[in-house]
Amino acid sequence: MSLKSHIEWTDATWNPVRGCQKISPGCKHCYAEVFAERFRGVRGHSYEQGFDLRLVPEKLTEPFLWPSPQMVFVNSMSDLFQVGVPDGYVACVAHVMAMADWHIYQVLTKRADRLAELLSGSLRAAASLPHIWWGVSVEDREYGLPRVDLLRSAPAQVRFLSIEPLLEDLGHINLSGIHWVIVGGESGHGARPMKEEWVQSILDQCEEAGVPFFFKQWGGRQKSKAGRSLKQRTYDDLPQICRRPILERSVRLAFASALQPQVEQWRRGPARVEPRVGANGHVAPVNDFVAAESLKPRQRPTGSVPELETEVLVKRGGASGNRTRFTPFFRL
User: Fold this and answer.
1) How many domains does the chain have?
2) pLDDT at residue 197 is higher than 50
3) Would 289 be classed as within a structural domain?
4) Is the pLDDT confidence value at 270 over 50?
């Protein structure tokens, strides 16, 4: 966890999952993979296993321990909805976000099909909460734009698009049901260029649709030099912020303590998980990019799914405040 993120549109990052697999052109120069693989084999380091997929259940209670409300990018070093993460673990992460409602959570994925499926089913309660924002990455027309339709089909209270890295002119984007758009160019070694007219087209569409627009960066090998100004101004718009007052430290610690049995149960299971194999034997939806990356089939994860049995009675608003019983939002 980092409470001082350098990502322009968030305050902090929270990574109860680490590692991922590439599934589309936007993944080609993944910053998270580059960072993690630097430490492969370094004994005791958080990324000793490089960018291999791992559950990190000891991170689950962190949002209860932070001393102030944050805007939190969930899994900046992974993808919560990748096929290797068990449904029960996704539910546990959502349970924490639902209970620690003094933070704003920004959940971003390229696995829009699984996002839509779970938010329409077992995570429907989380989808309805205004302090949890659900988003998809959009890099191009072929792979990115279909994710927008899948996101729109999910019953989410707040939906957003992270159009980064923007790799081509997207043309018309249906922004109905979308509440925020982020745009940015690719940065780092081998960064693919982004044209100003591509960005301007998205900005024009956002203004016409009344959707808040955030311009993150031009990118490039030295992104700080390129800056983040568009037409001599910066764009830092956000959706409406809706979160509750932070609870007293003693109550937050009680929440964390109540969740500890589930944390321990996940810790006793295999931290390193293998992606579930689909009917066609592939670990991800079949497309040209996956085929080019030559991803190998792996075994489906096994083991029981821990149930969430947390119940904490708290009082909000001082001595005369209403008492609220927090019970599990999700049971799989």
Assistant:
1) 1
2) yes
3) no
4) yes
- Of 95, 120, 13, whose CA–CA distance to 266 is shortest? 95
Q: What angle do CA 238, 239, 242 make, to 5 degrees?
A: 120
| Spatial CA neighbour of 118 closest among 293, 287, 271, 332 | 332
AA letter at 253: L
pTM of the model: 0.84
CA 182 to chain centre: 14
CA atoms within 13 A on the CB side of 237: 17
Rounded to whole angstroms, the Cα distance separating 182 from 206 reads: 10
Residue 45 counted as domain residue: yes
Q: What is the pLDDT of residue 274?
A: 52
Is 310 a domain residue? no
In a domain, 240, yes or no: no
Strands 323-326 and 312-315: antiparallel
Give me the domain span that covers residue 153: 12-226
Q: How many CA atoms lie within 13 A of 190 on its CB side?
A: 7
